[in-house]
Amino acid sequence: MASSDEMDTSPMVSSLLSSLANYSNLPQGSKEHEEAENNEEQRKKPIKAPQMGTLMGVYLPCLQNIFGVILFLRMTWLVGIGGVLGVFTIVFMCCSTTMLTAISMSAIATNGVVPAGGSYYMISRSLGPEFGGAVGICFYLGTTFAGAMYILGCIEILLIYIVPQAAIFKLEGLEGPEAEAALLNNMRIYGTCVLTLMSIVVFVGVKYVNKLALVFLACVILSILAVYAGVIQTAIQPPDFPICILGNRTLVRKGFDVCAKTVEKENGTFTTKLWRIFCDSELLNATCDEYFMNNNVTEIQGIPGITSGILAENLFGNYMEKGMIIEKRGLPSVALQDDPFTNTNSYVLSDITTFFTLLVGIYFPSVTGIMAGSNRSGDLQDAQKSIPIGTILAITTTSLVYMSSVVLFGACIEGVVLRDKFGEAVNGNLVIGTLAWPSPWVIVIGSFFSTCGAGLQSLTGAPRLLQAISRDGIIPFLRVFGHGKANGEPTWALLLTACICEIGIIIASLDSVAPILSMFFLMCYMFVNLACAVQTLLRTPNWRPRFKFYHWALSFLGMSLCLSLMFICSWYYAIVAMGIAGCIYKYIEFCGAEKEWGDGIRGLSLSAARFALMRLEEGPPHIKNWRPQLFVLVSVDGEQNVEQPRLFSLTNQMKAGKGLTIVGTALEGTFLDNYDQAQRAEQSLRKLMETEKVKGFCKVVVSSNIRDATSHLIQATGLGGLRHNTVLVSWPPNWKQSENHQTWRNFIELVRETTTAHLALLVAKNISAYPSNGERFTEGHIDVWWIVHDGGMLMLLPFLLRQHKVWRKCKMRIFTVAQMDDNSIQMKKDLTTFLYHLRIDAAVEVVEMQESDISAYTYEKTLMMEQRSQILKQMHLTKTEREREIQSITDVSRGSIRRKNPASAAAQPSLNEEKPGVSSERSEEEVSVHLLGKNVIPSPASPVSPAGGAETPREKAHMTWTDKCDGVKDKPPGTITPGSIKDMFNMKPEWENLNQSNVRRMHTALKLNEVIVKKSKEAKLVLLNMPGPPRNRTGEENYMEFLEVLTEGLNRVLLVRGGGQEVITIYS
C-alpha cells in the first residue's frame, strides 16, 4: 500500500526523462507573443524547438550590443585627451573586467538549464531573491539609461553631422553657455521625439525590431571595416583634411575657404575671409584682433597617416579645462599677458573639463552588452556550449578592435583633430569619418543606424527584464508591471522604461549619461562575479558547471575590478547606485515574497553558522557578553493554540530582538499518532512569534507524558554553544484545584531540572496582567527585592526591560532587607556605590526586619545573604583593593569552586579580622562563594583552606529548602547570631512535617509579603528571589503555598532564580 502511495506522488523515471528531453524555454513574452500574432498558424503547425547556434545566437548579438555609440562618437576624442597610453590602460582595464565577468557568467550559465532572463535569473538563483532583485533592478536601470545614451548619440549624429540646419535652437552667433544650452535643448526636443517614436515601434511590433537587428549589425561591421580600410589607405595616400592654425590655436573651419591672412593676386595683395573674421574691414590697414596680428597662420594635415610618426606626439594625455582653446604642440605662439580673449567662436574649444576618471566613466558603456548571449539562452540549441564560447569570443574580438583602434587613431590622426570632439576643425566632419574609406558618410550613416538599432534593442529588452522581475513577485510594488497585452507584451513595463529613459534624455549630454549606466552595469557585473565566487568556495553539491575554466580567485579579481571602476568613474554615482541597490535589498528582505531558490547566500549562511557554532564551543561566554538566551516554555490547548500569549510579549520586551530565543511546547502521546498536531502547534507558535515580533526558533516535542516531554525540551534544545541559559515559564494557574495537581508537580520538577542544569529560571506570575507590546507605561516603578545575591539576574533584568518602549518610562527601585543589628545607613551607601559601579540607575531603600521574620527564608538564602553583605562590605576597601575584591566576589560563579575541608573552613579567621594588606592579596578562589556539604556553614567572609580540592561540575549542587547544619564554630560578622543559627538549623527541615518549621516558613512568607505589598503595591512589576524547591517530593504543596503567600496581593511578579553564575560585572 505504501509503495502505491509513493507511485502516486513520485513520477515514473521514464516520464521524468521524457519531460527533460523535450524541455524548451522561449524568452519571456515571446512565446505568448508568437501565439497571439500567428494564432492560425499555431493551430496548424506545432512549435519547433529553437535551433540557434553559437554564431547567430551568441556571438553576433554580443558584437552588436558591445560595439556602439562610444566607438564612433567618442573614441577619437578619448585618445586625444587621455593619450594612447592612458586610453589603452582604460580599455585594457575595462575589457579585463568584462572578460573575467564573462568567465564567471559562463560558469553560472553552464551550471544547469538557464531559462531566459539573463543576469537577473542567474544572480537571483545564485545569490537569492534579495540580491537578485537588487541587481535585476540595477541591470534594468542600466539597460534603460543605455537606451537614452543611444538615442542621444543618434540625435548628435543627426544634428551635428547629417542635417545641422534642422536644429530648432540655432547655434549661429551664440557663444559659451548660450551655445551649449541651445545644443542641449535641441537634444532634449529631438530626443523626446525619437524616444516616443521608438516606443511606438516597440509597442506595435517587436518582431520588426528583431528582423532589423541583422541590418543594424551589418551597419556596425561595415563601419568598422571602413575604418580599418581607411587606416591602410593612409599608409598609401593620406586623405586631404587640412587644418588651419593661428599661432598654435586651432581654428573652426567655418566661414573661410583659404587658410591665410592675405592672398597674392596679379594686381596686388588681397585680404581673405579669415581676415574679415578677425578684423573690422577688408582693408589691409583695418583694426584687427591683437593675437591675429601677432601670429602666423599655418595649415597642417589633419590625417598625416600611419607612417608619419605622429604616434609619438599622441602617446601622453592632454587634459583640459572647460573653455580652453585646443592648441597644437610645438608651434610658436605670441600672446600678450593682458590680451583679452576675443573671437571665441573662431577657435575650437574644450566643451568640458576632462580628467582620467571621467574618461573611464565615458568609455565603460562601450564594453557592456556581454549578457546578450545569456539573455537568449532559451533560443539556443545548446546553451551550455554556446554561451561560454560565443561570449568569450565576442569579448576577445571587441577587445582587440578597441585596443587596435586606440593605437591606430593615435598613429594616424593629428592631436588637435583627436581632441576636437565635434570635428569643427575638419569642416564639421565626424572625426572617425575622416579616417574612413571610401567616404566619411559610410561611418556617419552606419553609426546613425547602429545607434538607432541599439536604442530599439534597449527599449525592447529592458521592459522584458522588468516584466520578469515583476512576475517573480519578489518586489511587491512592481507587480503591476508584470501585466501586459493579451499577447504577453509588457505594456506597462514599456511605459515605465520610456519614462525613465526620458530622464536620460533631459540630462541631454552623452558624457553625463554614460557614467550613470556605467554604475549600474558595473554593479551587475560585480554581483555576477560574487555569485560565481560564493558558489565555488561553498562547493555546493549542485555546483557542477560544464565550463571548467573558472576559479574563485578570478571571480574575486573581477569583482574587485568592478568595485574599483565604480569609484574611479564617479564616487558619488557609485554611492547612489549602491544606495538604490541597498534600499531594494532591504525592501525585498522586509516586504518581498518568501522565495527558496537554493541560492548560495543560504549556503553561505549555513557555513557561517557552522563556523560561529564551532567558535562558541571553545568556552563559555565572559560575564560581559552574558545575556539571557531564553527558552520560553508554553502550553497549548486541545486546538494547539498557545494558552499564554503574553509570555511572547514579555520575551520581546526582555530581548528586543537580541540573542537567542527558543519557544517550546510539549504534547502528550506518540509521535506517529500526533505528528499533525505537532505541526499545527509549531505553526501556531510561529504565527504568534511573528505577531509579537519575537525573533527566534520554535520546537515541539511529543512524548508519552508532559513531564518527560518538558525534560527533553530543556535537555536537548539548542545546538552546541547556541544553547539557552535561562528558562521562562508562567506560574501554573489554579494549581490548588484537585484536577490540576499534576500541573504544579510538573512545575516543581521543572524548577529542580533547571537548578540541576545550572539554568536561570524566570517565573511570571499573573502573566495575563502583563502589558502587551503596544502598551506604554508613562510612569511607575520596577521594584527589585534583593533578598540574596543570586548571580546578578535581579539587577540585569530590569535594565533589559527598560530598553523596551513599554517599560522605558518606569524607574527602577531596589529594596534590600537588613536585620536589626545591621548598619542600615551604611548598607544603603554601600549598595548605592555598588549600583554606581554597575552603571545601573536605581533608587535604593533598605528595609529592616526582625531576625526571626526572615531566618526561615531558607538556609541557602541565608548563606547567599552573607555573600550579598560581603559584596557591600568590600566597598569600604581602598580603590585598588576594592577593584580586586569586588570582582573576585562577583565574577566567579557562586558554585564554581568548592572546597572539601569543613574543619579548616570553619576554623579560619574572618576577613574582617585580617589585615587589609593580606585581604587585598587573596585570590579569587579564596573569596568566591563556597556552597559545601550539609554540615558546614561556609561564608565568603571565611577563607577556605587551599588544601581542599576543587569539585568537578558534576559534584556541584544548589542548596535547597532541606539543607541543614549542626552548628558553627565562628560567628560570621555582620550576620545572624549563634543562638539563632542553632535555633534555625535544629528545627526539623522537611517541608512535609506540619510542625514549627513550616509555621515559621509561613510566618516568613507573611511578614515578607506584608513589607513587599506595603512598599510595592503600586509597582508595575516586582522582581523577587525564588527559593529552591524541597528535596523530598511529599512537601511540594507546602512549597507552592509558600510562594503563593509570598506573592499575594501583587499584580505582576517575576520570580527569579539564578543559574549559578555571575551575569553582571562592574568592569567595562
Automatic annotation (TrEMBL):
Reaction(s) the record says it catalyses: K(+)(in) + chloride(in) = K(+)(out) + chloride(out)
Start and end residues of each SLC12A transporter C-terminal domain: 645-763, 777-900, 1000-1068
Gene Ontology CC: plasma membrane; synapse
Subcellular location: Cell membrane
Database matches in InterPro entries: AA-permease/SLC12A_dom, KCL_cotranspt, SLC12_C, SLC12A_fam
Stretches assigned to the Amino acid permease/ SLC12A domain: 58-232, 346-630
One example of a Gene Ontology biological process annotation: chemical synaptic transmission
Keywords assigned by UniProt, alphabetized: Cell membrane, Chloride, Glycoprotein, Ion transport, Membrane, Phosphoprotein, Potassium, Potassium transport, Symport, Transmembrane, Transmembrane helix, Transport
Record field: compositional bias (Low complexity): 938-950
Stretches that traverse the bilayer: 52-73, 85-108, 120-141, 148-169, 189-206, 213-232, 352-372, 392-418, 438-456, 492-510, 516-538, 550-574
Biased composition, class Basic and acidic residues, residue ranges: 30-44, 912-925
Chain residue ranges for the region called Disordered: 23-47, 877-925, 936-955
Its membrane topology: Multi-pass membrane protein
GO MF annotation, one: potassium:chloride symporter activity
Pfam family, one: SLC12
Metal-binding in keyword set: no
Keyword Magnesium belongs to the record: no
Principal subcellular localization: membrane
Superkingdom, taxonomy of origin: Eukaryota
Similarity remark: Belongs to the SLC12A transporter family. K/Cl co-transporter subfamily.
PANTHER family the record matches: SOLUTE CARRIER FAMILY 12 MEMBER 5 (PTHR11827:SF54), SOLUTE CARRIER FAMILY 12, CATION COTRANSPORTERS (PTHR11827)
Name listed for the protein in its UniProt record: Solute carrier family 12 member 5b
Organism: Scleropages formosus
Gene giving rise to this polypeptide: LOC108930435
